[in-house]
Amino acid sequence: MKKAMYIAIGAVLGAAIFLLTGSIQKEAIASVNDSDIDKEALYERMLASSGAATLDLMIADEIVKQEAEKAEIEVTPKEIDAEMKKYEEQFGGAEALQSILEKSGVTVDQLESEMETYLLIEKLIGPDVEITDEQIKAYFEENKESFAQPEQVEASHILVASKEEADEVAKKLKDGESFATLAADHSIDTATAGNGGELGSFAAGEMAAEFEKAAFAMKVDEISKPVETEFGFHIIKVTGKTEAAEANLEDSKEQIKETLFDEALNTQYATWIAEKKQSYEIDYKL
């Protein structure tokens, strides 16, 4: 929940951050059939649509920082790094995260800034947030299906454009060449080629139907014949399997506690920041 909030807030700031940097010089930033669209027009449009909301976020962040200074609370680089690691794991690695950030118009610096603010909020307000065993149990019962573990396959693949190339790669594998090396040399899946074609674990419904049918039917360490999907021809190597398992409260307890903590923290933060704004001298000049 908080992870998505980081990107959402970062995207708002990334899109509108220049609104508060001073006057905008008249300058063409695009043209349509020799008719210019100038930066001032863009500024006015963005200011009207998101300027006030962006300024409000920045004011709130400044209040958090000043309150943290009063309380002598800091966030260390080590804590930011640990939070970033969690974030990368959730989104499938550093490269996948970078891709998501780029699509959202958010830089790593902006994301780290939002992480720092959130961690300060956790330290300022978190000690007052209590999550009981009764709350955890109730949440588990209401969302039991989502905590069940579906059957999963862990696999790597080499994706090529033609059947001929797939057959060539298959022959090299049969001759003993490394799967990871061949993935790096031949796979057109640029997101995975550099790490040996590793896809991680996936459940049914997450991959192309033809790909899943082959992968779920294979044994661990088995390498498939070329499998055609809409993306091209895949050679699949299954590296692990996880059996389906029913939901278990004890196994899900920490995850549920974190979810409930984030929800409670967000709710309490809204009240806390509103009260703090009343005690600060804020001069809006937008």
Automatic annotation (TrEMBL):
Annotated EC: 5.2.1.8
GO molecular function: peptidyl-prolyl cis-trans isomerase activity
Keyword Hydrolase among record annotations: no
Keyword Metal-binding (UniProt): no
Annotated ranges, domain PpiC: 150-240
Keywords attached to this entry: Isomerase, Rotamase, Signal
A Pfam family matched in the record: Rotamase
Name under which the protein is recorded: peptidylprolyl isomerase
Enzymatic reactions: [protein]-peptidylproline (omega=180) = [protein]-peptidylproline (omega=0)
Family matches, as InterPro entries: PPIase_dom_sf, PPIase_PpiC, PPIase_PpiC_CS, PrsA_foldase
PROSITE patterns the record matches: PPIC_PPIASE_1, PPIC_PPIASE_2
